[in-house]
Write a structure and sequence with these properties.
Elements lengths: L11 E3 L12 E4 L4 H8 L4 H7 L3 E2 L6 E5 L22 H4 L5 H4 L2 H8 L11 E3 L1 H12 L2
Antiparallel strand pairs: 1-5, 2-4, 3-4
C-alpha cells in the first residue's frame, strides 16, 4: 500500500488475545445473508427472537441487518465476561478483524485500534502475508 495506507508489504502480525476490546467499540455489526439464521440457531432462538433480543434493525444506508454497539456498552452479543456468545458462527465482519479494508487503507485507523487491541502487531502473533491480508479485506466486503 502507498500513501496513507498501512504498510503490508512484509505482512503484519496479529494474535487475538480474546480480550473483547474490539467488541466494546461503538459501531455496527453488519450481518450478511444467512448469518442471522446461524446465530439464532446457535443460541436456540428463532430469527424473530434474535431480532428482538439483540435489537437487530436494518441499517439506514443499505437496509442490511445490523446490531448496534453504542454508549460504550459493547456488542450486545457479548456475555457478562466479555466473551462472544456466537463465536463459532460469528459474522464475517467479526472473523475478519483486524484486516478490514478501512484498517488496511488507513494507517491512522490501525494506529487507533492498536490503542485498545493488544494483538495488533504483537510479536507472538501470526504473520499474515500481504496476499492473505488483502484476501481477508475482500472477504469482509464480499467482493
Amino acid at each position: 500500500m502507498t500513501g496513507t495506507g498501512l504498510d503490508i508489504e512484509g505482512g503484519r502480525r496479529f494474535g487475538c488475545t480474546a480480550c473483547g476490546n474490539c467488541c466494546m467499540q461503538d459501531g455496527y455489526v453488519y450481518m450478511k445473508e444467512g448469518e442471522v439464521e446461524r446465530m439464532a440457531a446457535h443460541l436456540g432462538k428463532t430469527v424473530g427472537e434474535f431480532w428482538r433480543d439483540y435489537r437487530v434493525h436494518a441499517h439506514p444506508a443499505d437496509d442490511e441487518p445490523v446490531i448496534e454497539a453504542k454508549d460504550g456498552k459493547g456488542c450486545p452479543l457479548l456475555t457478562a465476561d466479555r466473551r462472544c456468545s456466537v463465536h463459532p458462527v460469528k459474522p464475517v465482519q467479526c472473523s475478519t478483524w483486524p484486516f478490514w479494508r478501512d484498517m488496511v487503507e488507513d494507517v491512522e485507523a490501525w494506529t487507533k485500534a492498536k490503542s485498545y487491541c493488544p494483538g495488533l502487531d504483537a510479536p507472538s502473533g501470526q504473520l499474515y502475508s500481504r496476499k492473505e491480508i488483502l484476501a481477508i479485506a475482500r472477504e469482509k466486503r464480499g467482493t
